[in-house]
Design brief:
single chain, alpha+beta, OB fold (Dihydrolipoamide Acetyltransferase, E2P), five-stranded mixed β-barrel, 8 strands, 27% strand
Length: 226
């Protein structure tokens, strides 16, 4: 089986002294694992950064055996943010979410386009807020719509609007910007509350039921914002 495609590098792990096992989310073939021979060489490793977009040629002897990639750089996104730990951690966290939440070899052009959209978000001034919307869009595309608007009650206290989500066991204040998408937020505490709410939903609804540990990369990303 031989094919050419384009995709985003999700992860890489050393295979032997000179090679790497990588996971790439491709446009036409979904998430694919493969070996990059010589992936630790100076010529290649500089652009094998998580999140970079690559041209790739895939070759496998059978569907039951891991194949190998020959790659070329298409767009080097990660190096742009080497001097910005927050955005670099965000790239790592987002690619790890794609890795954790998608199945192997299942084509989904919507997921590919969502990854592409991610890189139009992080250069913006209010990128953290838009990234939270991006996570919600990703989860919805995967079939896990949080449906916040239908779960909250609107309350007005001292002329201020609050949205409250209640269940039989807990009561949560939902940041207004998650309901009113026209609101621009600059307060870091509010943004962190939004990230926590999405993270709690991710852990409770998706990760724990599937025996998946909460991703360290997302914790590191949130920690870098504080």
């Amino acid at each position: 089986m031989i094919w050419d495609d384009i995709g985003f590098l999700l992860s890489k792990n050393r295979y032997n002294e000179n090679s790497l096992i990588t996971e790439i989310y491709t446009k036409d073939h979904g998430k694919i694992s493969g070996i990059i021979f010589g992936g630790t060489s100076k010529k290649i490793k500089n652009y094998l950064q998580t999140g970079n977009q690559l041209y790739l040629n895939y070759n496998s002897k059978s569907d039951n055996r891991i194949g190998y990639f020959k790659i070329e750089i298409y767009k080097a996104y990660s190096p742009i943010y080497f001097d910005n730990p927050q955005k670099l951690n965000c790239i790592t966290s987002s690619m790890n979410l794609i890795k954790l939440l998608t199945a192997d070899s299942q084509v989904n052009i919507k997921i590919y386009n969502i990854i592409d959209k991610f890189y139009s978000i992080i250069p913006e001034d209010n990128w953290i807020q838009k990234y939270i919307y991006w996570e919600l869009e990703l989860l919805k595309t995967l079939g896990y719509d949080l449906e916040l608007s239908s779960k909250v009650n609107k309350q007005i206290i001292d002329n201020k609007t609050f949205y409250v989500a209640e269940s039989s066991t807990e009561k949560k204040i939902v940041p207004n910007f998650l309901i009113d998408k026209t609101e621009t937020v600059t307060d870091l505490k509010t943004l962190l509350a939004g990230l926590k709410l999405v993270g709690d939903y991710l852990e409770k609804t998706i990760l724990k039921p599937n025996n998946i540990n909460f991703p360290i990369s997302r914790l590191q990303f949130i920690s870098s914002l504080k």
